[in-house]
Amino acid sequence: MLVLKACRRRDPMEGAERRNLHMPIPTGGYREVAEDLAARIKSGEYAAGERLPTYSELSDLYDVSVTTVQRAIIVLQTRGLVVGLQGRGLWVAEDPGSP
Description:
Layout: H1 30-43, H2 55-62, H3 66-78, E1 82-85, E2 89-92
Antiparallel strand pairs: 1-2
């Protein structure tokens, strides 16, 4: 015969008043990387049609994680500054800034 004991489910918010739930969420990182890359593109350091460094190279350059670089690239793609080609890398858009 199998007997199941009733177990009390732990409330994940139990003791929350003792934890700091109002910690500031870091919002930097990827935004700064995106702004710097955008400035480099607009200044011509990375010309239209030029291949950008890999995620790994950008990660090393900015001393951030690859995930941070990926988020920055998404911002730049949304702005129409870069184009990602599957298996071929990241490229500066032919007409940077025009969606």
